[in-house]
Amino acid sequence: QVQLVESGGGLVQAGGSLRLSCASSRRTSSTYTMGWFRQSPVTEREFVASINWSGGNTYYADSVKVRFTISRDNAKNTVYLQMNRLKPEDTARYYCACRALGYSVLWQNYDYWGQGTQVTVSS
Fold first, then answer.
1. Which of 3, 47, 52, 95 could be disulfide-bonded to 57 (CB atoms 3.0-4.6 Å)?
2. Tens digits of per-residue pLDDT, 65-79?
3. Phi, psi for 71 (deg, rounded to 5)
4. Angle, CA 71 vertex, CA 112 and CA 25 arms, to 5°
5. By the 8 A CB rule, do 79 and 89 touch?
6. Distance separating alpha carbons of residues 117 and 19, to the nearest angstrom
7. CA-CA distance, 23 to 117, in Å (whole number)?
8. How far apart, in whole angstroms, are the C-alpha atoms of residue 99 and residue 111?
9. What's the alpha-carbon Rg for the chain, to the nearest Å?
10. Are 83 and 94 in contact (CB under 8 A)?
11. Contact, 81 vs 19, CB < 8 A?
């Protein structure tokens, strides 16, 4: 069992930045993939970014590419999502997730989830 806890959300003006953190309750296997997803009242849960735990391979949704950066600190069992040049359309609840296998953009393929952290971008 893996517990994930997100933090770092908040209210920010358009063009601003936030850094989200996702702390894992234990060290995950080197095969695990960590992902960030987001969901708003008007959108389905959508893939944002993922990172391979050991190799550092990263993937991004086209809508956030260049603006967002996913990274990890294995010593702290923590994954980060640096979000720059935020837009109002980035407003959503952001979830951290973990899966035992490789890269996937489908939230249904992830095994463990955090409770999420709210990001609100004002125009």
1. 52
2. 999 999 988 888 899
3. -150, 170
4. 35
5. no
6. 11
7. 12
8. 5
9. 13
10. no
11. yes
Q: How confident is the model at residue 28 (pLDDT cuts 50, 70, 90)?
A: low
Query: Can you read off the two tokens belonging to residue 117?
Result: 């952290």
Residue with tokens 């490789």: 102
pLDDT band at 36 (very low <50, low <70, confident <90, very high): very high
Q: Which one-letter DSSP state was computed for residue 28?
A: P
Question: Residue 42: which residues within 8 A CB-CB, separation 6 or more?
Answer: none
What pLDDT score does 32 carry?
A: 83
Say which residue the tokens 């959503």 belong to: 92
What pLDDT does 80 receive? Answer: 95
| Cα–Cα distance for residue pair 20/115, rounded to 1 Å | 13
Whole-angstrom Cα distance, residue 75 to residue 82?
A: 18
pLDDT of residue 24: 87
Contact 4, 113 (CB under 8 A): yes
